[in-house]
Amino acid sequence: MLTLPWPSCYRVDVNIPSSGTEIAAIELGAGVIKRATRLADGRELIYYDDRDTTLGTERSVDTRALDPRPATAVMRRDVLTGDWISIAAARQNRAFLPPAHLDPLAPQTATNASEIPSMYDVAVFENKSPSFGPALSVQTDAAPAADDAPRDLDDLLAPGLDRTRSSVGRCEVVCFSPAQEGSFGTQTRSRARTVIEAWADRTAALSALPGVQQVFPFENRGEQIGVTLRHPHGQIYAYPYITPRTTLLLASIEREGADLFERILASEASGPRVVLEAEHWIAYVPFAARWPVEVHMSPRRHVPDFAATSSAERDELADVYPRVLRSIDALYPTPTPYIAAWHQAPVHAGRDTIRMHLEITSPRRAADKLKYLAGSEAAMGAWIGDIPPETSAARLREVIER
To answer: In this structure, what DSSP letter does residue 368 have?
Structure first.
């Protein structure tokens, strides 16, 4: 029995099993194998094995003695904007830049009672301190029961002061690799393809959960962005509402026309801001870029989300997406912090008009300078760009060509 130092949200009494158990396997696209199991407190854990994996069929059992899962957070409606704000106090206890020997995303060892019991290629699990979910009927003094979920989208739009609802949904962590350093852009092509298959599988599964309105895969990279774990990973949020950004997008489509994305791609493809072109994907710096480094990437045909992409589109994405990320890293001598956000159509709205697309943004405006959101941007949402988009695109093209 081991007792290890750990963040306060964990009670760590660990038996590291000497042998594992075989988990039922499901074959997905590109030869990726999916194996679903549970952590000690009931959270779902899913292993995705590479097509060329060297792992066996067994996985160790999570034998930690964990505290009960936190109550589902509560959402409060900002009556001035209509936005719903999730108040998730349990997030205060999440790990913050732990030392390498206590990496909570590395495979468990006799000295590290991490979140993942076994060696893995790619692993996805429910966040221990989620902003949304779990959808449990838990009543606490600080929050209503989780069964006080939004009834529907009309319920979320209803007027009134001091409105609350339970933050039902799901927050998942996507570990790109058991390695303790890196990002999506540092993965092999085979590993990138496995992650893409996992994104597609999780998008389909989360979209089917009751009450989920939108699914959002993303990667935060770099401490300057606010990353609290250095391990190469991303996250997936399943929201109980349509996000404010997507609500604005739906309004833009209503104003500009249902073929908005098709016209954007036609315009960008013939202009000076293209960064990379492939058979199924095109990457470009947008016409009105906000950030010093900003790249959008979209499929050439209309696709609402990852679950709807073809095998050929996923195969090619495993090549072009890491190339774009590596070009951003090559702009300066040290790795560039960024947010890589995969915008997908909501589950029940805009499926025929919102095309899934990637938006990579970085505040890095020079080797040793960051863009900070000042009063106009942070308070009023009135942006001022520092670098002309055409200049940014030319620099990225030059790096890719090298």
So the answer is: T
Spell out the domains of the chain, with CATH numbers in brackets: 2-239 (3.30.428.10), 245-401 (3.30.428.10)
Extract the tokens encoding 282: 């095109």
**179-236 tens-digit pLDDT:** 999 999 999 999 999 999 999 999 999 999 999 999 999 999 998 888 888 899 999 9
Nearest Cα neighbor of 238 from 280, 262, 266, 210 is 210
For 334-379, write each residue's pLDDT tens digit: 999 999 999 999 999 999 999 999 999 999 999 999 999 889 999 9
Element (H, E) at 377: helix 375-380
Q: How far apart are CA 398 and CA 331, in angstroms?
A: 10
Q: Which one of the listed residues 231, 233, 280, 357 is annotated catalytic?
A: 233
Q: What is the DSSP letter of 85?
A: E
C-alpha distances in Å from residue 86, one per residue of 170, 184, 204, 241, 291 = 13, 28, 24, 11, 26
Can you read off the two tokens belonging to residue 327?
């070009």
- The 3-state DSSP class for residue 400 equals helix
Distance CA 152, CA 167 (A): 13
Tell me, what amino acid is at 55?
Answer: L
pLDDT of residue 147: 67
pTM of the model as a whole: 0.91
- Would you say the C-alpha torsion 39, 41, 42, 43 has a positive or negative sign? negative
Distance CA 402, CA 395 (A): 11
Q: Could you report how far apart the first and last alpha carbons of the chain are, in Å?
A: 53
Low-confidence ranges of the chain (pLDDT < 50): 1-18, 136-145
280 as an active site residue: the answer is no
Residue 195 exposed, middle or buried by CB count within 10 Å (0-12, 13-18, 19+): buried
